[in-house]
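Entry type: protein chain
Record version: 2
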Amino acid sequence: MSTDPVTDRESLLGLQRGDASALNRLIARWQRPLLAFAYRYVQNSADAQDLVSEAFVRLYTRRAKLRPDTNLPAWLFTTLSNLCHNHHRWKRRHPTVSFGAPVNGSASGVQAPEIVMDPATPEDSPDAALAHDESVQALKAAIDSLPHDLKVSVLLHHYEHLSYREIARISGCSERGVETRLYRARQQLREELGRFFN
């Protein structure tokens, strides 16, 4: 992800002065990477869009309290990661109930979490496509099961391609702490996904 602190700072100052177009510029600049992060965290596109919208609402309502030298990407990702974490915990405590078709032949009506699969390439055999789908689904489930601090570090490093320094700013820990979190996350993922690599 490319960052331009000068542009972000100018847009933030414009937003603080009441320039209505400044928020639009910030949304145009940051919406896509924030949506990608939120989707990978909550694995639901509608929820991801709502959470990103909420992050921008918070930016607007708190604009006057932000310092002019605020690291805007770090602020946005920190806010969004906290929103995603709270949403994820709430969803686990309040599973979605459908009054429609039963799931897995049961009459409980509890919906499984929505996971969008990566399409298999046309030249894949059905067995290879099924194995690919199973491994992708297992990886998403394994990342989803990581504790919040490990999950945020993995998503920001491996999917958003942020440096240890940038992740440290977002997560409020040292660069060494980020390195430790990524190491622990990889260890957990290896244990969880070991059967796919044997």
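Comment: The longest helix spans residues 20-42.
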